[in-house]
Amino acid sequence: MKYLPPEYLALNEYKKDAGNGDKTVNDYLELFNKSRTFLLTITHDDENVDASKYGVTNMSDYSQRIKDLSFNIKESLVLKTDSGEKYNPVLTTMENLYEIGNKKSIYIVFSDDYKNVLKSEKLDIVFQDTFLDTGITHFVFKRNKIDNLPHLNFLNQ
To answer: Taking the model in full, what pTM does it have?
Structure first.
């Protein structure tokens, strides 16, 4: 699990949309500052084992697994704040790697609508893995660490 800072996300979106509008990096940054975004990568130690195929016996099961990874993974994730509140992601999306490699990468967004997501001193993301049967995993992030990342200044915005 990796934390993706708003500056990183804003710069990526700006590059994608370059020339397609009048938005600046700061316009995107304003949007991304209202959420916490993470990247979860699901992979197996054995390079021959793929999370989309593990335990799958037929095409129907495979289709369901892809749907679960793409659309239902929200149900496998919960964020706990230091005040004990629990939140599900507002958005999850699986990066399509077209079956290259054995990893699945999923972007996870928790919104500022849950006021404590941005203010909580500790964020504990709990992942219930039903894809590789590894059980429950906790990813703990401290606010003072993720908010004190080096500041990026953008030129030619």
So the answer is: 0.84
> What pLDDT, on a 0 to 100 scale, did the predictor assign at position 106?
93
The strand pairing partners of 128, in sequence order, are 136
Let me know how long the chain is: 157
Which positions of the chain have pLDDT values less than 70?
Answer: 19-20, 97-101, 114, 151-157
The DSSP-derived string for the chain is -EEE-HHHHHHHHHHHHTTSSS--HHHHHHHHTTEEEEEEEE--SSTT--TTTTT--SHHHHHHHHHIIIIIGGGGEEEEETTS-EE--SEEEE---TT-SS-EEEEEEEETTSTHHHH-SEEEEEEEE-SS--EEEEEEEEHHHHTTSPPP--S--
Q: Report d(CA 27, CA 102) in Å as an integer.
A: 36
Q: Which residues of 76-97 are buried (b: 16+ CB within 10 A; e: fewer)?
A: bbbbbbeeeeebebeebebeee
